[in-house]
Structures are given as C-alpha cells and as structure tokens.
Amino acid sequence: MLMPLERLRSILELLFREGVLVGERDGCPRRTHPQLPGVANVEVRRAMASLRSRGLVRQTAAWRHLYWYLTDAGVAHLRQYLRLPPDVVPRSLQRVPRPAVPRPEARRATATAAAGTHRARPAGGDRLYRRKDEGEGHVERVAVTAGQGLSQPPP
C-alpha cells in the first residue's frame, strides 16, 4: 500500500517509542487510529504487516484488536531507520527503578508492634488443634457449648 512517508514515519516513531502498538481489526479505510491523528487504521495495519513479514515485529490477535511487539531485530532496524542513538530504547524495554521495600518479616514485625494489641487466644491454647498431648499420649476432649464459648472438659 502506498502511503506518504510522514505517516509511515509517525507510525514507526510511535512503535519505537512505546515498543508495542495496538490496532483495531477493522477494514474500514476511513477510520483513523486513536493514537495517531490523521493516520488511517488500515495504514497502520499495512505498515505492521510489512514489518511482520520481515520478522521485525511479533503479532498477537485478541478479539477485535491486533497487538504488535518489537523484536530485538526490529529495535535495531528502527534505530537505524529513524537515526536514533544507541542509548535510546523503547519504553517497553526500559527498566523502572523500584523503591526499596523492607523484607516481609520486618514489615510483619513492625505491623504487629504498631498494632499494640494481639488477638486473644482461647483458654485451651494450642491444645485445641493438637490431637495428643506431648507427654500423656491420650486425646483431650474440649466441649463447646452454644453462647458460652470454650469450657473445660468434664472431670
């Protein structure tokens, strides 16, 4: 498909800047691309088909949309075509510095210290879920009555 070089260049610049391009799967030639004013959606699809046939982008389809992802060869080709320096990389390949997060153990300890109160444990303690006492070797029965909570076993 023949298209003006300004439109092709704007498509390729957007693709390189973001690293990913989305296009609606629609054959209507009058519909414009939402991210590129003045460029038809059909022109975006044809430009991406050309790059896809050369192995510079990878295409994924989902319902009514097509997604194109730059490959490493595509990054090198567009960097040369757009005359960009080697330190410029697409947004999808940039590393985002994450703030230092304390370890989960430290967070948990500070959260319980900040709360100040711990949840009260039942009178039976950990015997409620254990089957045998460690020293006795028999099963202890605990009766629960409605409305009164936990009670002691009968004598």
From TrEMBL:
InterPro entries: Plectin_eS10_N, Ribosomal_eS10, WH-like_DNA-bd_sf. It comes from the Eukaryota. The keyword Ribonucleoprotein applies. Pfam families: S10_plectin. Residues 95-155 are annotated as: Disordered. GO terms for molecular function: RNA binding; structural constituent of ribosome. Residues 109-125 have a biased composition (Low complexity). GO terms for cellular component: cytosolic small ribosomal subunit. Residues 3-95 form the Plectin/eS10 N-terminal domain. Residues 127-141 have a biased composition (Basic and acidic residues). Keywords: Ribonucleoprotein, Ribosomal protein. Belongs to the eukaryotic ribosomal protein eS10 family. PANTHER family: 40S RIBOSOMAL PROTEIN S10 (PTHR12146), PLECTIN_ES10 N-TERMINAL DOMAIN-CONTAINING PROTEIN (PTHR12146:SF25). This is PLEC protein. The gene is Plec_2.
